[in-house]
Amino acid sequence: MLTGNKGEWSEVYAFFKLLAEGKLYGADGALNKKNDIFYDILQIVRNEQVGTLHFVFDGATQTVNVQNDAGAIKVSVSCDAFKTQAENLYGKIVNTKGTAAFTVLETSEFMEEIGCHKLKAPSADKSDITINVHDFNTGLNPTLGFSIKSRLGKPSTLLNAGTNTNFIFEIQGNMTDADMDAINGLFVETVKEGVVKKDISVEQRMNYIKEHGFFLSYFSMAGSTFLNNLILIDSDLPAITGYMMLEYYLRSTNNILEALNTVAQNNPLHYDLSQGHRYYHYKFKKLLTESALGMLPGKVWTGKADANGGYIIVREDGEVLCYHLYNRNDFEDYLLKNTRFDRGGAGRHAYAVVEKNNGKYYIKLNLQIRFIR
Length: 373
Fold this sequence. Notes:
Blueprint: E1 3-4, H1 6-21, E2 23-27, E3 33-48, E4 51-58, E5 63-67, E6 73-78, H2 79-95, E7 102-103, H3 105-113, E8 129-134, E9 143-150, E10 157-159, E11 166-172, H4 177-184, E12 187-192, E13 195-200, H5 202-211, E14 215-221, H6 224-233, H7 237-251, H8 256-266, H9 279-293, E15 310-314, E16 320-324, H10 328-337, E17 339-342, H11 346-349, E18 354-357, E19 360-366, E20 368-371
Parallel strand pairs: 2-16, 9-15
Antiparallel strand pairs: 1-7, 2-3, 3-4, 3-8, 4-5, 5-6, 8-9, 10-20, 11-14, 11-19, 12-13, 15-16, 17-20, 18-19
Helix pairs in contact: 1-2, 7-8, 8-9, 9-10
């Protein structure tokens, strides 16, 4: 029996719905459907236990032929059957409360019938679904990988937290060892089932820094791989990201666009803004886009996208829309308007601790970027 959370079941839902309709529609920067931009689906390719399966869409007969690599048809299923399964699964997803994993009996049985034995692609791969489409722009039939994000469940992450997403800031002002000890002694206690747990209080530590007149200046990054990935995209991205993180940690601005607007207005890198160039917005949108398409903080980024087709979004009303890389401007606008800062646990990811080195004081702060919804 297949088990998954809302995000994982949403990938199956998108798979069913696309095969039911035979078209993948585009979206604008506000996630509105663009009826004049769509791609005819020729087939969807899945790697399963029995090997590679090709779900070939036949528009003339409104059926989907499930074939192996040799072209042998294993089973033929009507598009109406995929439509019924998609509608049933959508209802199960939206009516299931909480975030725990759950099973859907009817869907699991249907998946078995068509040769599917898993819900999602490996987590190391940004591409969640592989689709062979007819591209009207070029007349070609490319096979493209898309990442799927669902708005039916808990907001998913765009860039995951880890010790390699820690940024290092120098604490400037008249800090002493006594201040360092005071900051590092700030914890919060929680009680669960009679057990007292002591966690680093990031909020209290940031408040101490602000209330005692200290300020933070971007110094470097803890992870050399992530640092070099950002430099590959743009040499100023580490510093720009660091300044934006300060808006989050010191001024509680978690909205990416709001933080970006503030940093651009303050212009800490002293760009020439006299002609209206939007340096900060342009550069940070590249970070969001590359993170969406394949760049991982702990893996050397070569610039080659895993999700070479773009993004597929499962909207709240069940509509399945895409941002193809031909419509990159809409895609970048969507990411910029729909993401926020977040962070991992301080103890787990080893940050929010003041350290002294060569007479100077430093603190690491953690970066995570999550979708707003």
